[in-house]
Every structure is written in structure tokens, then in C-alpha cells.
Write a structure and sequence with these properties.
Layout: E1 2-3, H1 4-10, E2 30-31, H2 39-45, E3 67-70, E4 77-80, E5 85-88, E6 94-99, E7 110-118, H3 132-138, E8 163-165, E9 171-175, E10 180-186, E11 197-203, E12 218-226, E13 231-241, H4 245-261, H5 273-288, H6 295-341
Parallel strand pairs: 5-13
Antiparallel strand pairs: 1-2, 3-6, 4-5, 6-11, 7-10, 7-12, 8-11, 9-10, 12-13
Length: 345
């Protein structure tokens, strides 16, 4: 790894206008050793800004006190305060509000990058990508990443990007070293009477999709960056893209409270001595009542048990068949993905 200063020194006859008047000597941005593409071209292609293989999830307000807020949820998304997580439907819009305590310098262009990462450290090094099924709709022949060192997602409706910014000036980025997709939005001055920068986001895949996120929890990392790629602020937001946001929020909050405080709702209330004595008397009374056993009643019981056993066996067979069919479908999807990614396709 080398700093951008040493890389620029090696470039023959650098153009002074290349950096838009920015003082290159003040840049402290780290790039891979083998980067050799023209910087202007990389910015236009969305491949210039380097994304780490292991992005940090530590919040960093930075020198401008970079913050993230959101308006009240609606029918399409809800926010859980204890989980600090948004639950939202696929392709639904979530407007996030970004603020800085002081005005950003006007002589420098700033960007807000949205990068999805897996929450679990076990999967943090794996890029978050769309599943094969949803990607197939936009790029049936898998041409967007046919070449490993070139991303053509913009030609196919940004096929590889889970996170979309619903802005005309959004820049969709791909880092070939980490394999991660992200979207950057230029930061404009807040409108008169407002101190926030509102950016609408949508999401093009579900966290439960097989062959994609596969039910793995994800976080969104929002970074405030300079035109040179220096991070001057970072905020983190948990998110789940699902079919029923309200239902999933209630379930996960219930599990959260059960793990944190114990499942008090399902614990039995201690009984008083009077209640225990009353229960004991009732049981003793029931033990005195004997139902005479008759051949007819015994035959009815055996017949009901036999019918129940037959129904249970049929249900088990249907369940096994369903599981087998589901497994075959997953194998077919995997095979289709392999064929689409093969060089001979």
C-alpha cells in the first residue's frame, strides 16, 4: 500500500487541472499498489474510491459532527429503537436525513457513500450482492461482471447493487479489489430554511433470498468523504429487507427482550398455598371418579388412534416430498448460476 502522494509522483507530466484545484500534498488517502488507471476515468466509471476488504463498523462523527436521522416510519418501513434497525420492503423508498454541525467547505466536493456489509464478523469479508434470481431479471446472461476487472452494472440497471440512491446524480461504484458495490451521492448545500441533506434510498433484494444475503443480517455504512476519498464522518444503520416489516420487527424485538430480560411473559406465576390446596382437592376428587370401561368405548379409542396414525403418516410423507422438491429447486438454481457464469455461455 502507498499513499496517493507517492503514486502521483510516479505519474508522468501530471495535469494541474486533474484534481480540480485540490491541494494534492494534503491528501492522505491510501490506494492499492497496483492501481494504474487514469484518475479522471476512474471517477467517471465509479471505480476510483477504494473500499477496504474489512470495512469498519465504528461510528465516527468526524470534524463536522456528521449525523444521521430519519422521519417517522410508514406502512412500507418501520424502525426498531431497541434493535437500532430499519425493517423495509423490497424496492420501497427510505429517506435518510444527514446533517453536519458546521457548513462544509465550498472549495471541496463532498460525497455520502452507502455501503452494505454483513453484521456478523464471520461474514464481514464477503461482499453483499444480489441473489441470482433478482439479478437474472436485469442481466440474464451475467454480462455485467463477465470481466473480473470491469463492472458494467450501469448498463444492466445497476444489477449488482443491493442499495440504490434515488437521485439523478448518484454514482454507482465497484471496487475490484474488495468486490464490493456501493453508491455515492454528491453533497449539495441544504435548501433554504433546512439544515439537512435528504437522500432517498431503495433496496433491490431481500435479506432472506437464497443465493444472495441468505438470511444474514446486514448493516449500511454511510461515510462522508472528500473528493480524494478521505473519510471525515461515518454512521451505521442496521437494516432488514423483508416482505412484512411490521411482523418481522415484532418478532425480533420479542426475541431481543427474551434474551436480554428472560421470557417473563411465559413464566408461570407462583401459586399461593390456597390455590395449591384447591388444586390438590380437585385432583383427588377426579381420582375417585371411574369411568366404566366398555368394549364399545375401547373400540372407538383404538379406531381414532388408528385414523390419527394414518393421517400423521400421510402428513410426514407430504412434508418429506416438499423438502425434497425444495432441495432440487435449490440445486437447479445453483446449476443455472454456474452455467450463466461459465466462459462458454
Amino acid at each position: 500500500m502507498k499513499k496517493l502522494n507517492s503514486i502521483i509522483d510516479k505519474m508522468a507530466s501530471p495535469n494541474e487541472d486533474m484534481f480540480g484545484g485540490f491541494d494534492i500534498n494534503s491528501m492522505d488517502y491510501v490506494l492499492p499498489d497496483d492501481i494504474n488507471a487514469d484518475i479522471n476515468t476512474d471517477i467517471l466509471d465509479g471505480n476510483f474510491f477504494y473500499v477496504s476488504n474489512i470495512p469498519t463498523k465504528e461510528e465516527y462523527p468526524g470534524p463536522f459532527n456528521f449525523t444521521l436521522t430519519m422521519d417517522a416510519g410508514g406502512q412500507k418501513w418501520v424502525y426498531s429503537q431497541p434493535l437500532q434497525q430499519v425493517f423495509i420492503g423490497m424496492n420501497k423508498v427510505l429517506v435518510l436525513n444527514f446533517r453536519t454541525e458546521m457548513q462544509l467547505p465550498l472549495d471541496e466536493q463532498y460525497y455520502i457513500r452507502a455501503l452494505p456489509v454483513y453484521s456478523n464478523n464471520e461474514h464481514i469479508n464477503i461482499p453483499v450482492c444480489r441473489c441470482t434470481f433478482h439479478a437474472f431479471e436485469d442481466d440474464p446472461q451475467s454480462q455485467a461482471h463477465h470481466s473480473p476487472d470491469k463492472c458494467r452494472c450501469e448498463e444492466f440497471n445497476n444489477v449488482g447493487h443491493v442499495v440504490r440512491a434515488e437521485c439523478r446524480d448518484a454514482i454507482y461504484c465497484f471496487d475490484q479489489h474488495s468486490g464490493r458495490h456501493s453508491v455515492m451521492t454528491p453533497v449539495n448545500r441544504p435548501q433554504p430554511g433546512s439544515d439537512k441533506i435528504a437522500i432517498p434510498y431503495s433496496f433491490a433484494c431481500k435479506t432472506s433470498c437464497p443465493g444472495g444475503m441468505q438470511r444474514r443480517a446486514i448493516h449500511l455504512i454511510f461515510t462522508l468523504e472528500t473528493s480524494g476519498g478521505s473519510v471525515v464522518g461515518r454512521r451505521i444503520l442496521g437494516i432488514k429487507i423483508c416482505s412484512c416489516p411490521k411482523r418481522d420487527k415484532e418478532r425480533q424485538e420479542k426475541d431481543y427482550y427474551a434474551d436480554k430480560f428472560g421470557d417473563a411473559q411465559h413464566k408461570k406465576r407462583p401459586q399461593s398455598s390456597d390455590e395449591q390446596q384447591s388444586k390438590k382437592i380437585k385432583i383427588e376428587h377426579l381420582e375417585l371418579i371411574q369411568v366404566p370401561k366398555t368394549p364399545a368405548a375401547d373400540g372407538d379409542v383404538k379406531r381414532e388412534i388408528k385414523d390419527f396414525k394414518k393421517m400423521f403418516d400421510e402428513y410426514s410423507n407430504d412434508l418429506n416430498n416438499l423438502i425434497a422438491k425444495h432441495s432440487k429447486m435449490l440445486q437447479k438454481m445453483k446449476r443455472i448460476d454456474e452455467l450463466l457464469r461459465s466462459p462458454s455461455f
